[in-house]
Write a structure and sequence with these properties.
This protein is of the alpha+beta class and about 325 residues long. About 30% of the residues lie in helices and about 30% in strands.
């Protein structure tokens, strides 16, 4: 299995763009070769009728759902994707590549504390992922559970408290305490952020900064997957940008992105057999947490978050840095 250091050595940082207090750094691979897309995205499988996500059984189970993949290809489920419907809305606890023609149980976290009644049998994919500051906290919880108990569960109570605090700060009340209600309450502002940023040709990843700090980083194996997730990710960070609007738009250097990558290299890590195809890689450090899925001889997805929304700059020690076409290489 390739190391994360080797993966990032092939990544270049593009020119940043900004809107209000949110700054994005596009990430590109130096190699021009693009592997074939040999899996389906979850929303495509559901739309085609070949993939279903339902309650585990008639009684339901808060931390688990049932995924039935009848497609001829594996289906990719991405950490933080929100699934709406069934007895309550959930988010995916980790990235999974579910095998073709298989049914598996997927670990999730509830993001709608006040509902436990059936709305519809099948869950659908929302147009956003969980906001980054809550998502990073949950990634840390799942990694701790894997280490201590061999499970992939979150701290459900902590997830609910995080959402409740977010809703209070952003004045988004909901009779069922649904995370989706926060997005709905601020839909107009969130969409302004989504329209302000565009995927770039060949872009495979992105790093986000708010208030002068890099908060997170996301990389996919294929530019098309990044294109499909680009606005979903922007919406998630937009919600955090609205939550920290008073911080202003402080400048962020490319060195801050490199510092985050350096911390990934220095973090403690371990890998276990994934729930579906491949290896589930987890890493954590004093200021970061993250996860990756290694499958089909490549990293299909990598996500990293600054703990408590804080990260610091540090010298890069992996590879020399160059500036081809105004880009910077790790």
């Amino acid at each position: 299995m390739q190391t994360l250091q080797e993966e990032f050595s092939e990544i270049e940082i593009g020119r940043s763009s900004e809107f209000r207090n949110l700054i994005l750094f596009p990430l590109m691979r130096r190699s021009a070769a693009v592997p074939p897309l040999d899996y389906l995205l979850l929303e495509d499988g559901i739309a085609q009728g070949t993939v279903r996500v339902t309650e585990l059984h008639a009684g339901g189970s808060v931390p688990e759902l049932r995924l039935e993949n009848n497609a001829d290809l594996p289906v990719l489920l991405v950490d933080g994707e929100e699934l709406v419907g069934a007895k309550q809305n959930r988010v995916l606890n980790l990235t999974i590549l579910a095998p073709a023609k298989h049914t598996i149980v997927i670990p999730v976290s509830c993001v709608e504390a006040g509902r436990w009644r059936m709305e519809c049998s099948d869950l659908q994919v929302a147009n956003h992922v969980m906001y980054s500051l809550g998502r990073g906290e949950r990634v840390t919880q799942v990694t701790a559970a894997m280490r201590s108990h061999g499970t992939r569960k979150s701290d459900q109570g902590a997830v609910w408290r995080n959402i409740a605090a977010k809703a209070t700060r952003l004045k988004a009340s909901s009779p069922t305490s649904a995370m989706s209600a926060i997005y709905e309450r601020h839909a107009s502002s969130v969409e302004e952020f989504a329209r302000a940023f565009a995927w770039q040709e060949g872009q495979c990843g992105v790093a986000f900064a708010i208030g002068g700090r890099i908060l997170g980083l996301e990389i996919f194996d294929h530019p098309e997957v990044m294109r499909r997730f680009c606005q979903k990710l922007v919406r998630s960070y937009a919600l955090d940008a609205l939550d920290t609007a008073l911080a202003g738009n402080e400048p962020v250097s490319v060195g801050a992105v490199c510092a985050l990558v350096t911390q990934i290299g220095a973090a403690q890590s371990f890998a276990e057999q994934a729930l579906g195809i491949g290896k589930d890689v987890r890493f954590t450090g004093p200021e970061i947490c993250g996860a990756a899925l290694w499958a089909h001889e490549r990293y299909v997805h990598i996500c990293t978050f600054a703990k408590n929304g804080k990260s610091s700059e540090a010298p890069n020690f992996w590879t020399r840095m160059t500036r081809p076409s105004h880009r910077r290489t790790f």
